[in-house]
Amino acid sequence: MINFALKYEIDAETCLLGTGIKPTDLVMADGLITRAQEMRLIENMMLALPDVPALGFKLGLQYNVATFGLWGFALRTSRTLKEACDMALRYLPLSTAYCHIDAFVDGDYFGLRFNAEDIPRHLRQFLLERDMATALNLLKELSLDGCHVAEIEWAGVLPSYQPYIEQVSGVSLSSHRSRHAILIHQEHLERPLPTYDAQLVQMLDHQCRQQLQRRQFGGCAERVRRQILGPLGFIASLDEVANALALSPRSLRRKLDLESTSFRHIVEEERCQLAQQLLRHSVMKIDELALHLGYTDTASFNRAFRRWMNCSPSEYRKQ
Q1: Phi-psi region of 145 (alpha: psi -120 to 50; beta: other; left: phi over 0)
Q2: 3-class DSSP state of 43
Q3: In the Cβ-directed half-sphere of 313, how many Cα atoms lie within 13 Å?
Q4: Phi-psi group of 206: left, alpha or beta (phi > 0 → left; psi -120 to 50 → alpha; rest → beta)
Q5: Which end of the chain is least crowded, N or C, by CB within 10 Å?
Q6: Which domains does the chain have, with CATH numbers?
Q7: Is 162 left (phi over 0), alpha (psi -120 to 50) or beta?
C-alpha cells in the first residue's frame, strides 16, 4: 500500500501517521500488522488522495498470488480452480480480505459473493473494491488467464468510474443486483491448474491451519476493535461485545487482560484516534462529533479529549 501511495507522491510518513507502525516493522519477515493499524493506514491514504477515482480497485490490482505468502502458495498448488477457491475461503483470515466472502452456485455459474456490511462505513467502498479487484487478479493468475469471469454483479447504483473498472478487468458490470459478486462459468472450475503439486497440497493445508490458529490466539483485542469500529459502534457495552464474540463478559475481560489491555482502553484509544482524524479533516461540529463517538453529551467528550491531548477539541482543531 505504501509503494502504491508513493506512485501518487504520498510519502511513507503520511501513510504511517498514527498507525504505530515503524518503517523497520515493514521489513520484518515475522512481523504482523494488525487490522486496526491497517485501517488507520487506509484512512490516511484516502484522506491524502480524495480525488483519485476507484482508489480501492486500483490498489487491489496491485495484489497477486505472491503477495500472500503461505496462503497464496497454497492456492497456487491446488489441483483445480474450485479447490483453490475452497482453500482460499477456508483460510480467508490469512489474506488481506475484509469482506465476508462465500461461494454459491447460480444456474451455470459459480460465484463469489462479497459482503462488506461489517466494515466501518467510511472504509466500506474502498475495501469492497480492493477485495473484488484482488479476487479478479488471483483468478486470472491462478488459471494463467484460462478462466474468464463472466460478470461482476454490483448491488445498487454503479460508480461513476464503471468504464474504468470494465476496461481494466475486461468484465462487464451489472447494477442493482441483490449482491456484490463475481460470476464464473462452472465449466472453468474443474480444469487442472498448471501449477498443481500433489505433494505440497496436504503440507500447505496443514501449515495454513497452524498459522490461522496462531493468529486467532491472543487476538481478542483486534476482534473487539472490529466490533466497535464496525457493526456495534462506540456505544456498545462490554457485555454486548462479549455476546457478539460468543464469549462471557468474564472471559472477555480475562483474554484482554492477558493481552495487557482492557475494553475501556480499546474504546478510549479508538475514540481518541477517530476524534483527531475528524477534527483535522472534517468540518463536523463538536457536538455532532461527540455523538458520533458515542458520548451522551458534549461536555463528557470535551473532558475526555482534554485528558488525551491536554487541550480542548476546539483548540486542537485550531492548532
Answers
A1: left
A2: helix
A3: 26
A4: alpha
A5: C
A6: 53-212 (no CATH), 220-318 (1.10.10.60)
A7: alpha
Tens of pLDDT, residues 119-133: 888 899 999 999 999
Among the residues of the chain, which ranges form H helices?
Answer: 2-6, 12-16, 35-48, 55-60, 69-76, 81-90, 121-142, 162-169, 198-216, 220-229, 238-244, 249-258, 263-281, 286-292, 298-309, 313-318
Q: Residues 6 or more apart from 69 whose CB is under 8 A from it?
A: none
What does pTM read for this prediction?
0.71
Of how many residues is the chain composed? Answer: 319
Cell numbers 470535551 correspond to 302
Which helix (H) or strand (E) segment holds residue 110: the answer is: strand 109-115
The whole-number pLDDT of residue 113 equals: 97
For residue 260, the Cα-to-chain-centroid distance in whole angstroms is 25
29, 95, 118, 265 from 73: Cα distances, Å: 16, 12, 28, 38
218 pLDDT above the threshold of 60? no
Please, which residues bridge with residue 182 across strands?
A: 112, 152
The reported pLDDT for the residue numbered 215 is 65
Please provide residue 261's backbone torsions phi and psi, each rounded to the nearest 5 degrees: -145, -175
| Average pLDDT score over residue span 155-159 | 91
